[in-house]
Here is the input.
Amino acid sequence: MKLATLQEQLPNFKIKLLTLADQEALMQLEQSNPEYHQYFSPEPLTAAEVERDLTAHPDELAAEQKQVFGFYLANHLVAVLDVLSQYPQEQCLFVGLLMVNQAYQRKTVGSVIATGLMQAALQSDIKMIQLTRVSADEGVAHFWQKLGFEDGNQLFLPLQHGGRIAVTTMTRVLQ
Here is the structure.
């Protein structure tokens, strides 16, 4: 996904690719959503986990297939979007994370970003967007469903601290 294509669809935001230099701002954004982190770990969020969020990708993908976009309003990071291009198949975009700062939630920020992403994906010849969500999080399920995503299979992912978590795949075919 080209930054310029995404920026064209979302002109009210300043969008940039986040790097390790943005780790502190990303940590503050993630800390504004403590419920999300608690699904994965009982421990407080660490700088190492935020660094992993910026860099981790499936082994079969090249590092450049992962992009983490930061969305800014008034020079303040209000949302992050983590995507994998051409994954899990060609002409597919996988959303690893769309997180909006808690202060900006329920103000259409997430819906505007997701809609802009779908428009930019169509312009980039992407035919499908896929994601996984925590199965127990009904608010997230409703958010994506109202954007036309449909539930797929439920999977169980291992957690770093032991145990596993149920996630549900969601897909939207773009037209």
Remarks:
- The first helix runs from residue 3 to 9.
- The two ends are 17 Å apart (CA to CA).
